[in-house]
Write a structure and sequence with these properties.
By secondary structure, this protein is mostly beta strands. It is built from 1 helix and 26 strands. The chain is globular and about 70 Å long.
């Protein structure tokens, strides 16, 4: 069994793996009826889902379930063994109005997944095809009370999450060679009060208790309690907010952070905006005690600055320019085989230019260009896998009178380095997607897309595979 933690490196996977969506606060909207979808495409990828909703005076209930599977591609770029993925999931969400502006809300979700991956087998311990795979079973839920008064809103809730992962050497394994379990309880309270016509106060507090264990390590626990307050002033073309947050960790002590933002109307459709924010993030129990764990890790801290102009144009078009900088200390990174470590001082700064055009009544275009310089201020080297220049653009056309929708999306990324020493360069790339949808009556929709139309060969992580040209077709229904 090779080191298991690399599966948790988000950029190392050639395809997205979504195990859960928090505690379901924003998974589905309330509606009355049924919606289904089915899709099939490249690499024997299949997905199906169904959602049932019932809403009436004083109540709403939504249930959904689905399954996704894919033969996948080799995680190792030069490999021939496909690394597949499958997931089954189900969720339930509801609310009941109790009267006196009080609502009971509850949600729950369960997901069961498996993802294949490649590793570092003996005797060379270099990246190669392996038959290893990981299973994950995750359940989460939240129950709460919401109060919505005329000038005061309150939310109170209790949430629980349980995640169990197993790492297997191959398909013949009857038991995992490495396993982890993690649970968390979280109590939260938040609210908003209207203090005057133009003055609002947002406030809240929460506390989370987590525990974590592995096949070879005893159970470890942590507690993080937080409180925040944000005062806002909103009048005419001026919007100002400032707040403070306190985080108390049972291992790393108490940390105070401050934030402020504001926008002001300079002229018709022209706005100036600016913000400042501080951040704090304690190491997770896995980073401290799991595979490659480091008990000497320090919390991440940061200061972020942003300023920009936004200009509205006739017909719904807009232009926006944003300048930003983020200074961080002790960012937590991972390097095989040494494990987790702090990177010291880093800085990410640059600009973002965003535009949206209404070319005609049925044709819209959008584009975002970002220039980023992200460096380790101790060594002066670029941070890994941060291209200096990226572009995303899109075109959407609603064919008049037919309901047909056509679109294209383009993603461009410049060169970057794969390692902190800046010795291994990753080439730039461009990926084009074409998509279309056709209504079939009032209840059905046929859609399709082609990803990586030009069949570009590229890597976002050295030696890890990415998808070539892929086509997908599907049907959505609603009642």
């Amino acid at each position: 069994m090779t080191e298991p933690v690399r599966v948790e490196v988000k950029t190392a996977s050639p395809y997205p793996v979504v195990i859960g969506r928090g505690l379901l606060g924003d998974l589905v909207a309330e509606f009355d009826g049924a919606r289904t979808g089915i899709e099939y495409g490249a690499n024997d990828t299949f997905s199906a889902n169904a959602t049932l909703g019932r809403a009436g005076p004083g109540y709403a209930l939504t249930a959904s379930a689905g399954r996704v599977r894919s033969r996948g591609i080799s995680a190792y770029a030069q490999g021939t063994e496909p690394d597949g993925f499958r997931q089954s999931y189900a969720s339930l969400r509801g609310r009941i109005d109790l009267g006196q502006d009080v609502t009971l809300v509850a949600a729950g979700r369960y997901a069961d997944s498996r993802v294949d991956f490649d590793g570092f087998p003996p005797p060379t311990y270099t990246f190669a095809d392996t038959p290893e795979y990981q299973t994950t079973r995750q359940g989460s839920g939240r129950v709460g009370l919401d109060y919505a008064g005329r000038s005061l809103t309150l939310k109170l809730g209790l949430a629980y999450s349980d995640t169990r992962r197993g790492y297997f050497d191959d398909a013949t394994s009857t038991a995992p060679s490495f396993a982890t379990t993690g649970q968390s309880w979280r109590a939260d309270f938040s609210g908003q009060a209207g203090l005057a016509d133009a003055l609002t106060l947002n406030f809240g507090a929460d506390s989370e208790w987590t525990r974590f264990a592995t096949s070879f390590d005893p159970r470890r626990t942590a507690r993080l309690s937080s409180a925040h307050a944000l005062l806002g002033y909103h009048a005419g073309g001026l919007h100002l907010s400032a707040g403070v947050r306190a985080d108390d960790h049972d291992r790393f002590g108490t940390h105070w952070t401050f934030g402020a933002n504001g926008t002001v109307a300079l002229a018709a459709e022209l706005r100036l905006r600016a913000s400042y924010g501080e951040g704090f993030k304690a190491p997770t129990l896995y980073q401290l005690y799991g595979y490659g764990g480091n008990l000497q890790l320090r919390p991440e801290t940061s200061r972020a600055y942003e300023a920009g102009l936004e200009q509205g144009l006739p017909g719904g078009s807009r232009l926006a320019l944003t300048l930003f900088r983020r200074d961080s200390r002790d960012l937590i990174d991972y390097r095989y085989p040494t494990g987790y470590f702090n990177t010291g001082r880093t800085r990410a700064e640059g600009l973002e230019l965003e535009a949206g055009w209404a070319l005609t009544g049925n044709l819209r275009a959008r584009a975002v260009y970002s220039h980023l310089t992200a460096t380790d201020r101790t060594s002066g080297k670029d941070l890994p896998r941060r291209p200096h220049d990226t572009v995303s653009a899109g075109l959407d056309w609603n064919v008049a009178g037919s309901g047909v929708q056509l679109g294209a999306d383009l993603r461009l990324a410049g060169q970057s380095f794969d390692d902190s020493a800046n010795a291994l360069r990753l080439g730039g790339y461009g990926v084009l997607t074409l998509r279309a949808s056709v209504p079939l009556g009032d209840r059905y929709e046929l859609y399709g897309r082609i990803e990586n139309v030009t069949d570009a060969r590229y890597q976002t992580v050295a030696d890890y595979g990415t998808y070539r040209r892929s086509a997908f077709v599907g049907v959505r229904t609603r009642w």
